[in-house]
Design a protein that fits this description.
globular; Rossmann fold; 39% helix; two-stranded antiparallel sheet; 188 residues; alpha/beta
Length: 188
C-alpha cells in the first residue's frame, strides 16, 4: 500500500519525493555589436540582425560604442629649460568631451535606427577608453554570448602599425567573436 504523504525508507525515516517538470533551461543569447563611425561596423550590425538575431528572436542585442577619454588630448608646452610637460586647458578638454559625447550619441542613434528599421529592440552602451580594451571589458561585464564587429580589411603591414581592434578582440574577448568582413563590392 502506498502512503500518499511520504514514502518511508526501510529505516523508518520519511523520504522526500522529487517530482520534476522537466522544463528545458533556455539561456537567452546576449549579442553585443560594437559600432563606430565606419560603414563596416554598421554593415556588421546589419549582418548580425539579419543572420543571428532573426534566427534567435529571444536574443538580447546590445549596441556598444567606445569613445576615447577626452583627457587624452593634450598638447606639449615648450618653455626654456622645461621639457616633456603637456597641458590642455580645461575649457578645451570640456569642449572636446562635449563634441565626443555628441558624436557618440549620433553613432549609437544611427545603429539603433538600423535595429528599429528591422523591428529589433536593442539597448545601447557608450564606454570610454581605448576601443580594444573598453569593448573587451564591456563584453565581460555584460556576460555576452557573442561579440559582432566589422573589419576595415587592413593589410598585414597597416594592421601591424595601426593595430586591429577586431584582431585584438578575437584573441582577448571572453566570448566568441564574429568579425564581419566587407564584401568585395563594399571594399571598393
Amino acid at each position: 500500500m502506498e502512503d500518499t504523504h511520504a514514502a518511508t525508507a526501510a529505516s523508518g525515516t520519511p523520504e522526500a519525493r522529487v517530482e520534476s517538470a522537466e522544463r528545458p533551461v533556455t539561456k537567452v543569447l546576449k549579442v553585443v555589436a560594437a559600432v563606430d563611425a565606419s560603414e563596416e561596423s554598421l554593415q556588421a550590425l546589419s549582418w548580425a540582425l539579419d543572420n543571428i538575431v532573426r534566427c534567435h528572436p529571444d536574443a538580447a542585442l546590445v549596441v556598444v560604442h567606445a569613445q576615447h577619454a577626452a583627457d587624452h588630448f593634450v598638447y606639449p608646452v615648450a618653455a626654456h629649460g622645461i621639457g616633456g610637460i603637456t597641458y590642455a586647458a580645461p575649457s578645451a578638454v570640456e569642449s572636446m568631451r562635449k563634441a565626443q559625447e555628441e558624436n557618440s550619441r549620433r553613432i549609437v542613434a544611427r545603429a539603433l535606427e538600423i535595429c528599429k528599421e528591422r523591428q529589433v529592440g536593442a539597448t545601447a552602451a557608450i564606454v570610454e577608453g581605448d576601443a580594444k580594451e573598453a569593448i573587451c571589458q564591456a563584453v565581460e561585464r555584460m556576460q555576452a554570448g557573442l561579440l559582432v564587429l566589422g573589419s576595415r580589411g587592413l593589410g598585414r603591414i597597416k594592421r601591424a602599425f595601426l593595430g586591429s581592434v577586431s584582431d585584438y578582440l578575437s584573441h582577448h574577448a571572453c566570448c566568441p567573436v564574429l568579425v564581419v568582413k566587407p564584401t568585395k563590392a563594399q571594399a571598393k
